[in-house]
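Session log. Operator J.P. requested a structure for one protein chain; no other inputs attached. Running the standard single-chain path with token output.
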Amino acid sequence: MVTARKLSGLLASLHAAPLEEENWQIFFDGLCEELLAVHGLFIAAGLKQGTAQILAQGGRQFNAEMQRQYNEYYWRIDPYWSAFKRRPRVGAIVGEELVTRQEAERTEFFNDLAVPTGVHHAMVLPAVVTPQGAEAISIWRSAEQKPFEKSAVDLLNLLLPHVQAALKMRRALAQTNVRSGRAEAALNASNAACFILNGGGRVVHCNQAAETVLKLQDGLTVKEQKLTVVNDPGAQAELQALVAAAYSAGGARLAQPGGVLAIHRPSGKRSFYAAVMPLRMPVMTAPNHVLVVVSDPESAATYPHMVLKSLFGLTQAEAEIANALLAGHTVEEIADLRQVSSGTLRIQMKTILHKTSTRRQSELIRLLQSLPCFAQEE
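Structure written below.
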């Protein structure tokens, strides 16, 4: 009979495992010790697809090569899982309920994997079973030991609801991480510098464009984890007030953005322009945050040739001219940079206007500015 102290330790490591993966091994080490087992592992399997993966283990562990072989080959000929797939159910199952000892000892799985790794008697705890797959704990004893007794089955069944809760939490965290990764990728795909702040003005996330702005050390920095305007107490106070107002309005559907401000740059370049707004969370109980989007007038958007070719059929040279116009260069300056005459460039300009269905240079620039911008790979 497991003691209250041992059970408490098993449950503590089990419930901590979804947050800190190393606790899975602590749990399996403790479980193997309590069950006098030599090996324990956590397997996620596709019942129909015939796929499986060892996600965690403890006790006498399989090495990386053995894990790979199991995931890629031995899973498909595992006699215990083959029998389980025919009649899947939740709850502890002693190996011989699935496959007799004589049948198991005749299999390639048993002789080429189990025997060399020193495992012999099996017990399985399928915790989650769906038509698509199963998540289960597998426990093994050595050939020198006895098969698992009823007290071992009872302990696993006692742990079952806690294992199910831990696996549910693990899946929820995995889904959250996927959504978080997608959101981060979306921010990084933008060429706008985006800072996400908490109510105190501390930066909790910034995209790659924001990191580029910070590296300039020209008007904006992060000091003590807070987004800070350099050498301008007035602008800093205004930024703090806008952040506080946006944070307070974060849960209101009709709240207006916190506001905008210009941020002077010591280099003498044109100021950054910052827009501060509430970042509303879909879950009302989630903490409010603030989004600060910073634009740099000195950093003109440019479009790769393939984008302008796909949209308008521009050639490489025409795309370079369009980008130069967007950057603020005059026709004469572009002609000089390209080492052609103004007349030649104006002919090219007429072709660009025709292809983009625009009539004048200002209309072309407005069209280009309306195109979606994406972060450029360095």
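Operator note: Residues 150-188 form the longest helix (39 residues).
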